[in-house]
Design goal:
The protein has 177 residues and is mainly beta. The chain folds into 2 domains: 1-56, no CATH class; 78-176, Sandwich (Jelly Rolls), CATH 2.60.120.340. 0% of the residues lie in helices and 41% in strands. The chain has strands spanning 30-32, 47-49, 78-87, 90-94, 102-112, 118-123, 128-133, 137-147, 156-160, 164-176. The strands form 3 sheets. A 4-stranded antiparallel sheet has the order 3-10-5-8, with no helix packed on it. It has a 4-stranded antiparallel sheet with strand order 4-9-6-7, with no helix packed on it. Strand 6 (118-123) and strand 7 (128-133) form a beta hairpin. It is elongated.
């Protein structure tokens, strides 16, 4: 087979997925997946698509490719965590990520079942975000670009600035390394 060399990049064939990357590798295509593929660092992996050929991006992947809290399957694993806050206490909204990982927030929902309005702070100790939550109401936000945790093994906490009877905090986050 004849081919033309451009800037020393040459098409390479005969290398299997998850094989060590050959020098000057040229790889195109998307692998249809129903589950997260197993791979290791510094190996070839194809672009991932669903069974219809749509490119997969986390967190918009199909439900059967989304992980659960504590999941170690895959590079990114989504999870949800709900926490109740009473009075003006601070509560952990997202537990600390495992060593070497970040828990970046993709959505947050506050449900204020008390008769008092409040402002809620959501913080990882470095970055702090403020949310106004009226009495007997629900407020929240979805982020197409996640709120990034300031460091690995960082927990997120939520605190009400005024005394309330009950406020539920539900957070969805992705596990990144």
């Amino acid at each position: 087979m004849a081919y033309t060399t451009y800037n020393s990049v040459q098409p390479v064939s005969g290398s299997s997925t998850s094989a060590a990357a050959p020098t000057n590798a040229f790889y195109m295509g998307a692998n249809a997946q129903l589950t997260l593929p197993a791979s290791t660092l510094n190996t070839l992996t194809g672009i991932m698509s669903d069974k219809f050929g749509r490119i997969i991006t986390i967190p918009q992947g199909p439900r059967d490719m989304v992980g659960v809290l504590g999941s170690t399957a895959g590079y990114n694993a989504n999870a949800n965590q709900s926490t109740q806050i009473r009075a003006t206490t601070s509560a952990v909204a997202v537990t600390a990520a495992p060593a070497g990982y970040y828990f970046d927030i993709t959505s947050v929902v506050f449900c204020n079942s008390s008769n008092n309005p409040t402002t809620v702070t959501l913080t990882d100790g470095t970055n702090t975000y403020y949310f106004a939550v009226p009495p007997g109401d629900i407020r929240g936000a979805n982020y197409s670009v996640p709120l990034k945790a300031s460091g690995t093994t960082t927990a997120w906490s939520a605190t009400t600035l005024t005394s309330i009877d009950s406020l539920w905090v539900t957070v969805q986050y992705i596990k990144n390394s």
